[in-house]
Amino acid sequence: MGRILESASVLGSTGSPGLRRSHSTRRNFLPHACAVLIAILVTASPALSADAHLSFKIPPVKIPFKVKDQAVTITAWAMISMVAKDRDLDVFKLELSADLADLQQNMTSLLSSQLDKDEHCGERTTVERATLMPADPASLATVHLHYERWACVKAFGKQQARRLVGGNAVIPVKLTPGVGENHTELRLAPEVGAIEADGPLGELLRSGTVGEMIREKIRTAILSAMQKGTNLSATLPPAAREYATIENAAFEDAGSGRLMVVLAGQVRITQEQVQMLSKQVKERIARQ
Hints:
Blueprint: H1 2-14, H2 17-53, E1 55-67, E2 70-86, E3 89-99, H3 101-105, H4 107-115, E4 117-118, E5 123-135, E6 138-155, E7 158-179, E8 186-192, E9 196-197, H5 199-207, H6 209-229, H7 232-235, H8 238-241, E10 244-253, E11 259-269, H9 271-287
Antiparallel strand pairs: 1-2, 2-3, 3-11, 4-5, 5-6, 6-7, 7-8, 7-9, 10-11
Helix pairs in contact: 4-6, 5-6
């Protein structure tokens, strides 16, 4: 009986040879399996994390142009952030912002270049002052001008000019931003507000073709300047510019009446183009 208990005690403490091999194999396998799993996670996680948070901050670009021989600069920058994958393409959210403060400072010169006239027998227009202010999500251009209409008649064999109507006026034009049909350009829809002008001049500006002409020239002048500053080719690196589209546009108040325009859209490019974009952004940052 003592030998049986002794044998049972030894078997309980050490186990059979088969059980000992099984326990040993299990102990050796678990650390190895854990190590393999950790290696897989470590290898895969950076790629997943990089894709989920991949973004490119395009540094500011100064875009100069001339207004009546006066240099005007619009500063634009962009953020490109990955949001999804579509087959072989990576889909990025695009947000392009342009600071229009310098354009605001030169609004009088800009509109004078388009509206000022001095016809002996016709219209004489002088822009005395012009402003452009935020009116989220639109902007408001206010133009103070002096307008006269002259006609020429012959009297005693000589041509004489006579003023038919004239005076000062304040014309507010609300500019609502939009996107062109090709989804690559900013558009502006003008809406004339309450015109301040006395007598016949007020009636002429409100109901005649003169008011429409002035409204259209205000829109065209401002849009032409803004399109220079929101040109995708001027701001985005080559790897992204041809594949970018604009879906929405809005004006924003950057504080103290400072006007900004923000374009939102997409960039759809291949992995190879993503690598090129990364290289081009780094090169642009290094040059600054």
